[in-house]
Design brief:
Benzoate transporter, ATP binding protein, Rossmann fold, ABC_transporter-like_CS, alpha/beta, amino-acid transport, globular, binds adenosine-5'-triphosphate, ATP binding
Length: 247
């Protein structure tokens, strides 16, 4: 691993999230082996790696979902290493899970409204109208139940719910997985809008080219370790990238 591209040695201005030496276990299975990750305010970071390399586990560890964990995690300098998921969420870290996470028996409107809360410093720049402007499909489906929506619409609703919390950081785990190409394009458009609005994002997606083209920095995991990281353009040009991604 080249020191020049080590994720921990990239200077971070105004860190939003900083994780050091993260380790995680599922029972006796040791999955993360000392991962460092830093995300600055407004920064888009891509998280890459083959199946089973620990991307979702890293995300779930940051969010406090993995009980057996070690290492230090801070959000805006506040230690959240032992925090519970709702405490992490309250600090402005929104999670769009792989399985979508919408309430099937509530309407689109209810799903959105119940998620609403002001952000850091009482920020309220993502009111319902702005979310509906961002996702015209959700406006059309406003009265439908979450469970009646297509997979793509549920994904939009899940991202819309995240925006209603006025997050500082949105974590998107496989947000385009299993969706039709047209919807995939729509989701990427919205990811671009979120980025442009100054909200930081951590993105896991199988389409590594899109991730690298649309992120500021990227980190590649292999067997629970960060083996490559740095500016996305440098990661894209790294001769080792192909072997780490199994291309
Ligand atoms: N709940 C769990 N219990 C036990 N082992 C798990 C659990 N979740 C994941 N693992 C194992 O942990 C390792 C890392 O999985 P993880 O889901 O973090 O990888 P990933 O990089 O996100 O891959 P994928 O793209 O397949 O989701 C794998 O070996 C996986 O089998």
């Amino acid at each position: 691993m080249s020191a020049a591209t080590h994720p921990t040695r990239t200077a971070i201005a105004e860190p939003l999230l900083e994780a050091r030496g993260l380790q995680a276990w599922y029972g006796s299975s040791h999955v993360l082996h000392g991962v460092d990750l830093a995300i600055a305010r407004g920064e888009t970071v891509g998280l890459l790696g083959r199946n089973g390399m620990g991307k979702s586990t890293l995300i779930r560890t940051l969010l406090g979902h993995v009980a057996q964990r070690e290492g230090r995690i801070a959000v805006f300098g506040r230690d959240i290493s032992r925090a519970r998921p709702h405490e992490v969420a309250r600090l402005g870290v929104a999670y769009v899970p792989e399985g979508r996470g919408v309430f099937p028996n509530l309407s689109v409107r209810e799903n959105l409204v119940m998620a609403a809360r002001p952000g850091r410093d009482e920020r309220r720049d993502w009111p319902l109208e702005r979310v509906l402007d961002t996702f015209p499909r959700l406006r059309e489906r406003f009265g439908h139940l979450g469970g009646q929506l297509s997979g793509g619409e549920q994904q939009m609703l899940s991202i819309g719910r995240a925006l209603m919390t006025h997050p500082e950081l949105v974590i998107l785990d496989e947000a385009t997985e299993g969706l039709a190409p047209k919807i995939v394009g729509e989701i990427w458009r919205v990811i671009g809008e979120i980025r442009a609005s100054g909200i930081a994002t951590l993105i896991v997606d199988r389409d590594y080219r899109k991730v690298l083209a649309r992120s500021d920095r990227a980190v590649v995991l292999q067997k629970g370790q960060a083996v490559l990281g740095g500016a996305s353009a440098a990661v894209a040009a790294d001769p080792l990238l192909g072997s780490f991604l199994g291309l």
